[in-house]
Amino acid sequence: RWLDYNFNLDSKTFIMGILNITPDSFFDGGMHFHENDAVKHGLRMVAEGADIIDVGGESTRPFSDPIPLDEELRRVIPVIKTLAQEIDIPISIDTYKSEVASQAIEAGATMVNDISALKFDPAMGQLIADAGVPIVLMHMKGTPKNMQINPAYKDLFSEITDFLRKAIEQAISSGIKRDVIIIDPGIGFGKSFDDNLKIINNLHTFSSLGQPLLVGPSNKAFIGHVLGLSVESRETGTMATVAASVLNGANIVRVHNVKAAKETVTMIDAIMKAET
């Protein structure tokens, strides 16, 4: 529970709709780059059943370069301001920069999704603590620029778990309350195709950390690798990964296609709740 929102994660799987205001995101780069298009798409996702809208202004696809702070702000702040007046579900800001998070919260965002798990900007932890909003802490090996250059692990699960445990401890020592910390194993962020499949199949491993689990497999390269399909054709594969993630313990799924995900998770939730 935070601010005016109350998420009972035991009641259902929650859907985070992706709103990329970028010219170069791997799946929908340029599609919602203009403010009006972005707002319309955000409203469409709400109508289709999104529980959270995740707004991002910087692509973090493999090999991407960071963008300047003022450009990221120019992309996201007007959209958040407009959406915040029109919708009654939380808006998340997908950023690792505390200044972007701060201005986004001022504009109406009530959640922060930090791919660096508070590592890239030392001021982020204090900002989240002061705002009292949820934070998503994601595991990533390296940076978006270098994370997919031969990612390798001695022990995939213990390394991710240790990283997330330390990130949770860092968040709590910054003053962030434990009950607003969400963890994300970082599908596609410094992982081989095989690593991503193993993570989805063994999500229950991360339940030992005691935090809600967000998973973001949507349209990623490992799906294309398994199915031999281009990025535009990975919808069925994405929904298969969403279903598997929910069955294996995901509380929140981050997706591009909210309508398909809503049907998928509603069906899986019903199956999981069926009495024996």
Description:
Helices cover 41% and strands 12% of the residues. With 276 residues, it is α/β, with parallel strands linked by helices. Strands 6-5-4-3-2-1-8-7 form an eight-stranded parallel β-sheet. Helix 3 links the parallel strand 3 (91-94) and strand 4 (111-114). Helix 6 (193-201) packs across helix 7 and helix 8 runs parallel beside helix 9. The longest helix has 18 residues, at 69-86. It is globular.
Percent helix among the residues?
A: 40-55%
> What fraction strand?
5-15%
Question: SSE order, as H and E?
Answer: EHEHEHEHEHEHEHHEH
Could you tell me how far the N terminus lies from the C terminus, measured between alpha carbons in angstroms?
A: 31 Å
Q: Rounded to an integer, what's the Rg over CA atoms?
A: 17 Å
Give me the count of strands. 8
Q: Trace the largest sheet across and list its strands.
A: 6-5-4-3-2-1-8-7
Structural class: alpha/beta
Low-confidence stretches: none
- Tell me, rounded to a whole number, the average pLDDT: 95
Spell out the blueprint of helices and strands:
Blueprint: E1 14-20, H1 35-47, E2 52-56, H2 69-86, E3 91-94, H3 98-107, E4 111-114, H4 124-131, E5 135-138, H5 156-173, E6 181-184, H6 193-201, E7 214-215, H7 221-227, H8 235-247, E8 252-255, H9 258-273
Brief digest:
This protein is α/β, with parallel strands linked by helices.
State the main characteristics:
276 residues, alpha/beta, eight-stranded parallel β-sheet, 9 helices, globular
